[in-house]
């Protein structure tokens, strides 16, 4: 029972990060109908930026700010310089270009920083707080949960309470009509990418210390888990992304705890296939995407 | 002249020309030619899948691994049982293809229900899960360490000092020519037309009486079989197989090769396979010509091909979606 409790709590903490990352995936999907396969590599790049700033200044929080800022710049830059020019003849085109970005970003990071794992510091202790003899969440886990919760609240406020959020939703749903009504659709698309990349940067900052360390490929597996989370929730639904993230976190935590940590990639694949085959639109899809 | 006869004739001409080339090349170049031929099996299959059926696979490196591991296991088992010889190698390669066909059928059945980014995501998960499979069943696959592959020396009839590399390039080229011949015929057949119809307009294809799901699964199976043979041949060339050699990066490289070569045309797969071998070699030469500290040179050499491949992928996709073959066709009307 203690073990189950520990795995559940641990799974929720991991799931929170997948949720944040899945939100980044969903943000771009809603704005541009693109699954950004470069999300992981982009997040790694921002974490390297944070790493450099922290090394130079000695401050974790300056590094943290640098990650978010570089996320905004990187996201906007990639939309402006690359994604905008991808021909829309086939939905595969943008996926292929994103994969090109993965190779390019990982190569540049590898050339600049080397291909070894670098340990990353955390602002809070990662030792679990013992409650009634059971080691549960660490201070760092609480920080992760709090940060993701704050992110979800801020995004919800942005989309439901601000005119920018309203315009973003209209631009995504009916770009032509929105343009006629004077909405700057292209600008909002750039903003959407910037926002998503900043969210990805946050998720990267939170997850990298819990992985093996910083490495150009660190986020590959995290991206797959988060993509699974987004699919579980339905690519269109931010709430689905959060629930999907937590669900994936729990499944992976139980799989790792009871079957061994080697199993997690296989468990991710199995979960992804199961969801796609049984309910291809995800659990929270409003419309059925496709009938076979 | 029927299509089959014409394709057979082209294959015979290509075989004769390549045979002459293998005698002219030094061993290392022969080995590179063999590697390109092994890649060609996979890129040709992937061209059919991505270019003609419009399904994207990011897991073809993993499919190659299935073929490679099957060849490794069967070669080693048969050698342990005292069975050696080149007939045995053909049997092992056939088993490799068979294993990949089964794998392709499983993924293909799932794929036929999925679209664009979803399919890409599933195949990505397959590629990422591969090392985990070799670790979980470490007793069979030996984790990261991988397996060595038993390979007989060239047949005695070829002479005492016949170079191994030339023999390897014969094997790989034979495989590649077979794949190209079969695929060229397949694409000219009813199946090839169905594929294009499904890619261009699914609803119209269905109205025309084409079983869309079946066509898509078949495309996946065919392309997996080709990738399996490519993986098996690669295992025979390197005489080893490990998860590191069939990583996600390899899958992305294969995709880059078919996109840069030119989607939708088998000739594009040839350009792509050559690029996969030539580009790393070229970047090696460039790095060697720069004056760098050993550490910096090592970093650059590992990553420069990746950067070049990634950049090429982006630029080609945006500026010349027809790839090399598209440009060639425009220059030579």
Automatic annotation (TrEMBL), chain A:
Any Pfam family the entry gives: BPD_transp_2
InterPro entries attached to this UniProt entry: ABC_transp_permease (IPR001851), BCAA_transport_permease (IPR052157)
Membrane topology according to the record: Multi-pass membrane protein
Keywords in alphabetical order: Amino-acid transport, Cell membrane, Membrane, Transmembrane, Transmembrane helix, Transport
Protein name as catalogued: Branched-chain amino acid ABC transporter permease
Compartment list: Cell membrane
Family, per entry: Belongs to the binding-protein-dependent transport system permease family. LivHM subfamily.
Membrane spanning stretches: 12-29, 36-54, 60-82, 94-114, 142-160, 181-208, 214-232, 239-260, 266-287
Chief localization: membrane
Family annotation (PANTHER family): ABC TRANSPORTER PERMEASE PROTEIN, BRANCHED-CHAIN AMINO ACID TRANSPORT SYSTEM PERMEASE PROTEIN LIVH
TrEMBL record, chain B:
Top-level taxon in the UniProt lineage: Bacteria
Keywords, sorted A to Z: Cell membrane, Membrane, Transmembrane, Transmembrane helix
Keyword Transmembrane helix in annotation: yes
Keyword Membrane assigned: yes
Membrane topology: Multi-pass membrane protein
Cellular localization per UniProt: Cell membrane
Transmembrane segments: 34-52, 59-76, 88-111, 118-140, 167-187, 217-238, 244-263, 270-292, 304-328
Protein name as annotated: Branched-chain amino acid ABC transporter permease
């Amino acid at each position: 029972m203690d073990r189950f409790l520990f795995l559940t709590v641990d799974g929720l903490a991991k799931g929170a990060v997948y949720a944040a990352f899945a939100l980044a995936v969903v943000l771009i999907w809603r704005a541009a109908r693109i699954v950004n396969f470069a999300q992981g590599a982009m997040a790694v790049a921002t974490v390297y930026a944070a790493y450099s700033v922290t090394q130079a200044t000695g401050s974790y929080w300056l590094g943290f700010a640098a990650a978010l800022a570089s996320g905004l710049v990187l996201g906007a830059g990639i939309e402006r310089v690359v994604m905008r020019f991808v021909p829309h003849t086939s939905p595969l085109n943008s996926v292929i270009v994103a994969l090109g970005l993965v190779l390019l970003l990982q190569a540049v990071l590898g050339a600049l920083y080397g291909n070894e794992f670098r340990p990353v510091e955390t602002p809070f202790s990662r030792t679990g707080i013992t409650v009634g003899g059971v080691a549960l969440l660490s201070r760092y886990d609480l920080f992760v949960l709090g940060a993701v919760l704050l992110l979800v609240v801020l995004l919800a406020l942005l989309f439901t309470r601000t005119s920018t959020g309203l315009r973003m939703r209209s631009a995504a749903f009916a770009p032509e009509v929105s343009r006629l009504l004077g909405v700057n659709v292209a600008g909002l698309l750039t903003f959407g990418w910037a926002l998503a990349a900043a969210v990805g940067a946050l998720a990267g900052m939170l997850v990298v210390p819990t992985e093996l360390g910083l490495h150009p490929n660190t986020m590959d597996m995290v991206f797959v888990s988060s993509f699974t989370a987004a699919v579980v929730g339905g690519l269109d639904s931010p709430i689905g992304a959060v629930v999907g993230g937590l669900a994936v976190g729990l499944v992976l935590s139980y799989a790792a705890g009871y079957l061994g940590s080697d199993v997690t990639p296989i468990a991710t694949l199995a979960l992804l296939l199961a969801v796609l085959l049984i309910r291809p639109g995800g659990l929270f899809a409003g419309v059925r995407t496709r009938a076979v | 002249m029927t299509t089959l006869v014409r394709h057979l004739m082209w294959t015979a001409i290509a075989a004769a020309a390549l045979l002459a080339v293998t005698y002219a090349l030094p061993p290392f170049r022969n080995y590179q030619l063999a590697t390109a031929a092994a890649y060609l099996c996979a890129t040709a299959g992937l061209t059919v899948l991505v270019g003609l059926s419009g399904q994207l696979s990011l897991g073809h490196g993993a499919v190659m691994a299935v073929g490679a591991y099957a060849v490794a296991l069967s070669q080693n088992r048969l050698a342990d049982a005292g069975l050696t010889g080149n007939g045995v190698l053909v049997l092992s390669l056939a088993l490799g293809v068979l294993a990949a066909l089964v794998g392709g059928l499983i993924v293909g059945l799932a794929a036929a229900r999925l679209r664009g980014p979803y399919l890409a995501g599933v195949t990505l998960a397959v590629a990422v899960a591969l090392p985990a499979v070799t670790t979980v069943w470490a007793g069979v696959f030996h984790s990261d360490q991988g397996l060595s592959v038993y390979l007989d020396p060239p047949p005695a009839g070829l002479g005492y000092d016949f170079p191994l590399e030339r023999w390897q390039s014969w094997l790989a080229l034979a495989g590649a020519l077979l794949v190209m011949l079969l695929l060229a015929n397949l694409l000219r057949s009813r199946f090839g037309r169905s594929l294009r119809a499904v890619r261009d307009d699914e609803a119209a294809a269905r109205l025309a009486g084409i079983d869309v799901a079946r066509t898509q699964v078949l495309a996946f199976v065919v392309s997996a079989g080709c990738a399996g043979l490519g993986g098996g041949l690669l295992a025979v060339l390197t005489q080893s197989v490990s998860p590191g050699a069939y990583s996600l990066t390899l899958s992305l490289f294969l995709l880059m090769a078919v996109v840069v070569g030119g989607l939708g045309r088998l000739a594009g797969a040839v350009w792509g396979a050559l690029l996969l071998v030539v580009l790393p070699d070229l970047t090696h030469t460039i790095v060697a010509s720069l004056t760098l500290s050993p550490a910096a040179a090592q970093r650059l050499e590992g990553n420069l091909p990746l950067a070049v491949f990634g950049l090429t992928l982006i630029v080609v996709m945006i500026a010349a979606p027809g790839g090399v073959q598209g440009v060639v066709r425009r220059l030579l009307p």
